[in-house]
Amino acid sequence: MATVVGSATVTVAVANAAILLALTKSRLVARGQRQNRLGLPEFAEAVAWRSRTDAELGEAIDGAADLAVGLKPALTSVASRMQSGVSASSAVAALPRTDPEVALLSAAIELAYGTRIETERIFTDAAQSLRQRRLRRHDIASQAAQGRASATAMFVLPWIAVGVDLAISGASNVWSDPGLRLLMMVALNLSLLGALWSLALVSKVEALR
């Protein structure tokens, strides 16, 4: 029995490590996306406003780039490419378009650069869409925070229960029995597995923002 339980403990521990690695990677990607999205609605509004003065699109983007904190270097590059006369698709190549919101902004830039008309309307619409997506992200973040709290409780509470039991009955009664000790470790590892799995699901939901 000890061998079976020990193998189960190792299996659960490996699963925990795999989920934790995937979760860490997901959190890093999400952090990068949040950085890229900073100030995008304000940037789009500024480009729309600057277009009213008949500024060239490249000049408007360069002048408003400070508002898009995470994308400033990329947007400065876009403006420079535009001013050198490259194609629309080449101009926006520096933008990380795997992020839906950056892709939306990129599409607005391509459309305005390709048609060279109605720049104000295009970027005003883009700013409105980006603000709506920001509000939706806030709603999802609130719900995700509740899920994350539940997942944390799922992991922490069993350890608290074990700690209380050990304090009352004494560690010698539990840890002296190898079978009971292994069963306890499996149970605690399973609680960690459940918590990590829940956190992974929460991260997937957050990625849809």
What structural category arises from helix and sheet content?
A: mainly alpha
Question: How would you spell out the order of helices and strands?
Answer: HHHHHHHHH
Note the total helix count: 9
How helix-rich are the residues, as a percent range? over 70%
Strand composition percent: under 5%
Oligomer description: single chain
Q: What is the domain total for the residues?
A: 2
Give the CA-based shape: elongated
Span between termini? 46 Å
User: Biggest sheet: strands, sense, closure?
Assistant: none
- Please tally the β strands and state the result: 0
Fold and architecture overview:
- This protein has helices spanning 2-37, 40-51, 57-64, 72-83, 88-91, 100-115, 119-169, 171-175, 178-207.
- The mean pLDDT is 76.
- The chain is mostly helical.
- The chain folds into two domains: 2-35 and 137-207; 38-136, no CATH class.
- The chain is built from nine helices and no strands.
- Helix 7 (119-169) packs antiparallel against helix 9 (178-207).
